[in-house]
Amino acid sequence: MEMSDQRLLDTKGPGHFIHTDPWRVMRIQSEFVEGFGALSDLGQAVSVFGSARTKPGSAYYDMGVEVGRKLAEAGVAVITGGGPGSMEAANRGAVEGNGVSVGLGIELPFEQGLNQWVDLGINFRYFFARKTMFVKYAQGFIVLPGGLGTLDELFEAMVLVQTQKVTSFPIVLLGAAFWGPMIEWITGTLVAEGMVSAKDLDLIQVVDSPEEAVNLVLHGHVRAPSTNGDQRPE
Ligand SMILES: CC(C)=CCNc1ncnc2c1ncn2[C@@H]1O[C@H](COP(=O)(O)O)[C@@H](O)[C@H]1O
């Protein structure tokens, strides 16, 4: 009879097993262990999201730098997705403000690596493990203009607050002209058709200056989410 020890020690064949789901579970677990280990002493932090495509010198990029700098000056660590564009901008601002600049990178087919302004960087294979870190180690979100990735992060945060999975979590959108039409659609269609409660709009606040965004995310009044039966047990 072949024994487990023997199978373990004798295996010389191709490592198909590392592509199996049980093995993946170990890798997923290791991402949580690494993330929790690296970030647990971070102190006060805010996660900043925004487009991977904004170019240095553009208004949105400058906005990101300003947000990062103001957070750093307030003694707050800046957490981003570690990529280019507005993420890089916020990391850059954090460094310029002598603060802590964190980048939680993600493995993508068009690998880019962490931007050069990240001081504390972790690379993730799995979006869901990485997204846990954005929420777990930040006290609020600032969302700059962005595309699908940014919307994904914004709406996930809103769902977590709405379902009371996280409490006291301010979400501030920066750029009234950019976010205005989305707010109008939420109000005019989602609220009008009863898909979300009007009170859920209170979960987000839209401002136009980096200063207001930082003030609100750090000191702003956080409204309670609605309890319209959306909560599910843990
Ligand atoms: C040039 C390019 C597309 C590079 C992509 N490289 C990336 N590196 C790290 N995080 C990313 C990247 N793309 C999307 N994300 C995630 O999604 C958001 C930006 O996506 P988007 O550009 O809004 O949709 C970021 O906040 C980030 O957390």
Automatic annotation (TrEMBL):
It comes from Arthrobacter globiformis (strain ATCC 8010 / DSM 20124 / JCM 1332 / NBRC 12137 / NCIMB 8907 / NRRL B-2979 / 168). It holds the Pfam family Lysine_decarbox. It catalyses: N(6)-(dimethylallyl)adenosine 5'-phosphate + H2O = N(6)-dimethylallyladenine + D-ribose 5-phosphate; 9-ribosyl-trans-zeatin 5'-phosphate + H2O = trans-zeatin + D-ribose 5-phosphate. The lineage of its organism: Bacteria, Bacillati, Actinomycetota, Actinomycetes, Micrococcales. Signal peptide: none annotated. This is Cytokinin riboside 5'-monophosphate phosphoribohydrolase. GO terms for cellular component: cytosol. NCBIfam families: Rossman fold protein, TIGR00730 family. Gene3D superfamilies: 3.40.50.450. The keyword RNA-binding does not apply. Its EC number is 3.2.2.n1. One of its GO terms (biological process) is cytokinin biosynthetic process. GO terms for molecular function: cytokinin riboside 5'-monophosphate phosphoribohydrolase activity. Belongs to the LOG family. Keywords: Cytokinin biosynthesis, Hydrolase. The keyword Hydrolase applies.
